[in-house]
Amino acid sequence: LEGLLKNSKVSPDESCLAAHERCSDCESGVYWIETDSMASPQEMYCDMESNGGGWTLVGVALVDYAGDTGWNDDDGMNLALSYSLDDHWHQTATIINDLLGSGESITHVACFDSNNDFERFWYGTGTYSWEAVSGATNSSDTYGGGGTGYSTVWASHHYGLVSGNNEYVTVITSHSGNHWACGGLYGAGGEGYTGRGGDSNFRMWVR
Q1: For residue 187, with 0-12 CB atoms within 10 Å meaning exposed, 13-18 middle and 19 or more buried, which class applies?
Q2: What is the model's pLDDT at position 145?
Q3: Structure confidence at residue 2 (pLDDT)
Q4: Is the pLDDT of residue 1 over 50?
């Protein structure tokens, strides 16, 4: 409780990871965060419990809005909703890169209510972009780097981060045309690429 009380608009944390390091028993929820590039603190959602805790939510992709202008935009989308778990939005690339640079450079995507509810982690995430191919050292389906590993490179129109370079297992956070994918044409649960009518929703976190 004491740690939670120390987080406020006038006393924000640099990231959810910083808040977790300050207060390891704090609960998941909305925290005031201020990164280097922010003009003022913002409310952001922190997962303080899963996979070691300290994860900052930076985007939610909902299939109902697939193809709508804005997903391939580094300036962010629907930022007034940027602490919501259940609305369609994503953070600016600049703030995402602030959070990655001040933390451990790990990105986590959890697909939900999708044809393929994949979960992926990227390690050594480089400069992230919603508009261009972004890099990572490696990717796997298990926190800590174990489990099955996946290629992080596929095609030039697969922006953001890629995990898996085939139509069976891929996860793509930002595809050209304002789309994304939790699985592809041959996903075990069905089509996952939203540009072909696939059913994919995900939440994206960084630490």
Answers
A1: buried
A2: 85
A3: 46
A4: no
Strand 42-47 and strand 119-123: the pairing is unpaired
Residue 167 Cα distances to 90, 128, 184, 200, angstroms? 25, 23, 4, 14
Q: Are strands 106-111 and 202-206 parallel, antiparallel or unpaired?
A: antiparallel
Q: Are 184 and 171 in contact (CB under 8 A)?
A: no
- Percent of the chain scoring above 90 in pLDDT: 94
pLDDT band at 38 (very low <50, low <70, confident <90, very high): very high
Q: How far apart are CA 183 and CA 173, in angstroms?
A: 11
| Residue corresponding to tokens 């898996």 | 164
| Helix boundaries (H) for 51-199 | 93-102
The radius of gyration computed from the CA coordinates of the chain, to the nearest angstrom, equals 16
Q: pLDDT tens, 110-162? A: 999 999 999 999 999 999 999 999 999 999 999 998 899 999 999 999 999 99
Which tokens sit at 33?
């965060």
Residue 109's DSSP bridge partners are 120, 204
List Cβ neighbours of 96 (8 Å cut-off, separation of 6 or more): 58, 128, 206
Which run of H or of E encompasses 16?
helix 16-22
